[in-house]
Design goal:
Elements (H helix, E strand, L loop, with lengths): L4 H14 L10 H17 L4 H7 L4 H17 L1 H20 L10 H25 L15
Helix pairs in contact: 1-2, 1-5, 2-4, 3-4, 4-5
């Protein structure tokens, strides 16, 4: 399970706002809406994967997908949800201003490896270019060509 600090912080902010635990096993509307806000923030503001979000509350990725899709229309048509979301977002922005280090992008495991791969690919291409500039014939060998 992903041990990111960021989802815990956001979860705490939402739980404090609603005064209940998000991981309670209930389908009451207020819990469902609170979890939807949590999913939406992690997905859209911090680009977490569906599975990484689902892990934080022991849910299925399809559950997260369903509620993140529904949430846009909820925001548009439900004044109460829109107000709750805006209040939580204000609290989150305040917390980010007070303690920005706590909100530095802490990637999910997939996101971490994707980022590392992009950085390594960039470094590899940079070094390959330098080798080619030096006229090194080794850089043109097929075994040195990167495949996706």
């Amino acid at each position: 399970m992903n041990k990111d600090f960021l989802p815990v912080t956001i979860k705490d902010i939402i739980e404090d706002y609603y005064n209940f635990k998000l991981d309670s096993a209930t389908r009451q509307r207020k819990y469902v809406e609170a979890r939807a806000i949590y999913y939406y923030i992690l997905r859209n503001k911090f680009n977490y994967s569906l599975s990484a979000i689902a892990e934080t509350l022991n849910k299925n990725h399809a559950t997260v997908l369903h509620f993140t899709k529904q949430f846009d229309s909820w925001l548009m048509y439900d004044r109460v949800i829109r107000t709750d979301y805006q209040q939580i977002e204000n609290r989150l922005n305040t917390a980010m201003t007070i303690n920005p280090d706590a909100f530095k992008r802490s990637d999910s495991l997939e996101g971490f490896y994707e980022k590392e791969y992009r950085e390594l690919k960039w470094k590899y291409n940079f070094l390959l270019t330098k080798l080619k500039e030096e006229g090194n014939k080794t850089a043109q060998k097929p075994e040195f060509q990167l495949t996706n």
